[in-house]
């Protein structure tokens, strides 16, 4: 089953970590896992429609990534702005933290900010001298394993074509493979989960049940709930969409496969063993070793099967992580 952090480790050559997106979104490879038969197939993402059944419904996360990365005018401090708390106050993460203790100041675009508070998670509450929109001149907050500055390409490609609800500081990467044309041919609906920086934080507990997930905001509309409740099979596009659906059914006093319209926060941690009430299939990218996302897909498909699939993906030179290839678990 796998209850320890070391049970979710694998060896990944650094050259397999995708540093840039493919020229065309739809050209990604897609590993297909057939759970009942424990069979692995190698396909292209463009073949997704042929693997779906009548009555299937794709559920996608329509969060929009904010241009949340900024640097101080002297280049000494990097800021990742997470949430606006008022006209001049923001919650952010800073690197290096030692430069930004309580009372420390910095300048961004000639405007001074001061650290008011450090949260228990190490985030900073800062106040600017005047009303200031940090996102207006910000850049895309690429994941730490993308070893380059973001550029104009990332402004478009580290964003899904259906992104519409601003609030994330990381992309729901399983959705990055879709074009508007592909999506128009497949029944689908949207939920929203604003992906937070905690998605990249390491698990530090060897006993994984002791780990506590970061809190993320989500919403599920009445229209989406109606479509989900009337579908024959639910295909979650990404771990974020899955967490919304499995949270929603646990929040409602309804039949196990039913969800109701709602909004709120979730810190749902999915790891083996876990009973999935709503999701029948999952499209997802390849995830970091020892991560909560690898634990989630292991709960869905079985740890041994997932690790065998990852070993095969490494042998076959799949591209990993945010700008990498994808996996369809049926």
Determine Rg (CA atoms, Å). 20 Å
Examine the secondary-structure arrangement and name the CATH architecture of the largest domain.
3-Layer(aba) Sandwich
CATH class of the largest domain: Alpha Beta
The proportion of strand residues reads: 25-35%
Number of strands: 17
The N- to C-terminal Cα distance equals: 20 Å
What count of domains describes the coordinates?
Answer: 2
* CATH topology-level fold name of the largest domain: QueA-like
User: What is the helix content?
Assistant: 10-25%
Poorly predicted spans: none
Query: Overall 3D geometry?
Result: globular
Description:
By secondary structure, this protein is α/β, with parallel strands linked by helices. It has two domains: 5-65 and 143-329, QueA-like; 69-137, Thrombin, subunit H. Helices cover 17% and strands 27% of the residues. The longest helix has 13 residues, at 239-251. The protein is globular. The two termini are 20 Å apart.
Quick description:
The chain is 17% helix and 27% strand.
How are the SSEs placed, and which strands pair?
Blueprint: E1 29-34, E2 39-44, E3 56-61, E4 63-65, E5 69-71, E6 78-84, E7 89-95, E8 105-108, E9 111-118, E10 124-128, H1 152-157, E11 165-168, H2 180-184, E12 188-193, E13 216-220, H3 222-230, E14 233-237, H4 239-251, E15 262-266, E16 281-285, H5 292-301, H6 303-315, E17 326-329
Parallel strand pairs: 1-17, 3-12, 3-14, 4-11, 14-16
Antiparallel strand pairs: 1-2, 5-6, 6-7, 7-10, 8-9, 9-10, 12-13, 13-15, 16-17
Helix pairs in contact: 5-6
